[in-house]
Amino acid sequence: xxxxxxxxxxxxxxxxxxxxxxxxxxxxxxxxxxxxxxxxxxxxxxxxxxxxxxxxxxxxxxxxxxxxxxxxxxxxxxxxxxxxxxxxxxxxxxxxxxxxxxxxxxxxxxxxxxxxxxxxxxxxxxxxxxxxxxxxxxxxxxxxxxxxxxxxxxxxxxxxxxxxxxxxxxxxxxxxxxxxxxxxxxxxxxxxxxxxxxxxxxxxxxxxxxxxxxxxxxxxxxxxxxxxxxxxxxxxxxxxxxxxxxxxxxxxxxxxxxxxxxxxxxxxxxxxxxxxxxxxxxxxxxxxxxxxxxxxxxxxxxxxxxxxxxxxxxxxxxxxxxxxxxxxxxxxxxxxxxxxxxxxxxxxxxxxxxxxxxxxxxxxxxxxxxxxxxxxxxxxxxxxxxxxxxxxxxxxxxxxxxxxxxxxxxxxxxxxxxxxxxxxxxxxxxxxxxxxxxxxxxxxxxxxxxxxxxxxxxxxxxxxxxxxxxxxxxxxxxxxxxxxxxxxxxxxxxxxxxxxxxxxxxxxxxxxxxxxxxxxxxxxxxxxxxxxxxxxxxxxxxxxxxxxxxxxxxxxxxxxxxxxxxxxxxxxxxxxxxxxxxxxxxxxxxxxxxxxxxxxxxxxxxxxxxxxxxxxxxxxxxxxxxxxxxxxxxxxxxxxxxxxxxxxxxxxxxxxxxxxxxxxxxxxxxxxxxxxxxxxxxxxxxxxxxxxxxxxxxxxxxxxxxxxxxxxxxxxxxxxxxxxxxxxxxxxxxxxxxxxxxxxxxxxxxxxxxxxxxxxxxxxxxxxxxx
Length: 771
Known about the structure:
The chain has 30 helices and 16 strands. A five-stranded mixed beta sheet has the order 3-2-1-4-5. Strands 7-6-8-15-16 form a five-stranded parallel beta sheet, with helices on both faces. A three-stranded antiparallel beta sheet has the order 9-10-14. The N and C termini lie far apart (about 85 Å).
């Protein structure tokens, strides 16, 4: 009763503020008090208006009635959207793609008012329903709450309040007595929502989460529902790990006990993905408590399990995204633990291991794996293993559903091991060791490998003669400056106004040199005449070689033997193994390493590319050029073009390039006969890249990154991508690996790649390459 009176007084105070404020300030006051804008407020507003009218204050009464009418429409819109999204959830059975697309188009409606509308409407509606109808609506509410809880857009705090409202209303139907399993499932989900809740008191939210998980375990027992029991035990462990109330030591012991219990069911043999997730959570606990040896051992087991699962993505793009983020965090945490244990060389090895994992998983998806020169029988063997693994997983799932005793997972584990061995043999990527990285260097060459953590970034300096890397650490302020500079200044200006971006580039790069503390890092490179830069994540987008030092020298001029880049030390090792040096006896007239192949102006709209390609081609004998309309995707597959392309020592693409942020594998180089206009209404969206309302590029006629991964260039020493943005990577991706055209060509066997980080005109590239 006290809370009702308190809220009623809050309504009256708000009305008084609106009546007393200067004209024009009403929207600001209403926006600051959105938590009070509900149906009850409208009732109070109308009551006050009626009282004003009775007192003869007609103008004020009319103003309040008008405000109530406007707010009623404000409340009605969320109601209409609620009905729409619940209907879509029901019809699609909670399909993430359907629900998320609708939510994404209405993020402005996902606020606390929506949570209130949901709670009021559902409560009233359920009271009028028959039991079977109520159960159906409760099921829809739970499905919707699951989706909004995981929805990555909009206001996260509001999303969680909406989810909590949905779960709590569903629990008025899903009771322990009537529907125990549904009740326990919803209690578990409610616990997760409270664990991640942003509003309210953090300590109290965690107590609510623990209470919900504990309730769920009354039904989810080890004997009756082992997997569900283990899931809730894992969740309960995380809640206890983060618990604020109670004795810290006791909370940690409760968390360890819960994780340990979950691992009794989530074994590596039975449920490897859940096994890795629970080990990760347990490792976080040990890391937080600075029990680093235990953390190392736990993360090591989790990583071994993750790497045994390469190619087995659970379901859908959302699951894939979440899994990628979680596993990247696992490797990052392992790097942190290695540094805490002063195992600096292992830190570098795990950085590289993470990058290799992402690349291998990309290469071995169902739609893209290396074709090149792999014997057909090996391809067939890999495909056969995939099929057998899926069949065995289905058999085990059916055995579990029927509670059969035939749940022997040894065959599945054996098949996974065979697949892992075959993948490693095909791709040639085994985890690189620190000593192997050192062997890539001579006495005058050093590697600078950056790595971005959550609270800082570090530069690992690797040389031939030191058995440990020298590490330069930044602080949290440096990382904040780097993120703000990269996204809010550099990239935002580039995409908004390229002309202004060019004008400001010198000053911007001067700021970047200061943020990276480049002078301090370079001071640690005494004696080096060449450096290889290995950036991380969005650092791949930045021209670090062009940064100016305090001395006035540019980084590229500081090192007489050059500055180059590598996507990772693993790919550097791969490229080095392909780069057979020419014989000293091979003169300029020799055919050794002189086969040149070029794509020249396939769209016939680059005025200076003809001069560029033909000038370069005169240096090489023999040379082969596909010019203008002849430079089609089909022509590359025809003889003799196919052999000349495959056997080239030097590849040169002078054309348009693009990076596809929605589908990175569809990034590529534009060839001839690729434009479509008008765009067919029935065209597949993934096949086209729209460049205007009625013009699109046909990706099937381009040379895409997926195509490049499937090619083989065993003799190629250099690929030059004289094309716009051909060096870009997906800077929105949380992956440790930079996946772009250069890494595709390196994987295809090329020793070196030259590419562009921004849009360039063909006159500039012709002049630069001509020099």
